[in-house]
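Good morning C.,

I know you're traveling, so I'll keep this short. The sequence:
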Amino acid sequence: MTSLAANNFYITHSSARARHARITVRRTGEVIAVRPSAMPSARFNAWVNSKKQWIERVVLRIQKHKPRVSLPNGRRSYLAHREHARALVHEKIKALNAVYGHAHRAVRIKQHSSRWGSCSTKGNLNFNYQIVFLPDHIAVYIVAHELCHLKEMNHSRAFWQLVAQTVPAYKACRKALKRYAMA
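The tokens, ready to paste straight into the viewer:
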């Protein structure tokens, strides 16, 4: 760990593959700075220190909007709840597809650390197993969101109109979802 300021620290990684220096602030508030191997350490440290105000703003924003509900996580939790999540997701897909009628391929339950769901261009749907711990209306929103990506692979106005067909209060669901911390 390297010091950034009196109270803040950042972790430095050196990378032979990195072309540019970068700073990432994780949801936990942890700051990761990546230095390309070709960049001298003194120049890199000066660059990171020049970004100090930006880092502090981002960390403060994260702390201000920190999720209030922690969900069970870890490999054991994933294994214990994966099949329950699969059943829940299939039930929601069946109910929502009565409205949408979108064809999909595989449905997978995964242990994501930053996504509730995703939809591939091939029509595969992936969901975070932690969906089982969410209130039902939010789980419905997540499944509807991914189903709508089968028709609209973007977040255009047309996409949100599709989502609104089954989840009229989707904006409230999106906001409520931010309260829950993933693995």
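Safe travels,
E.
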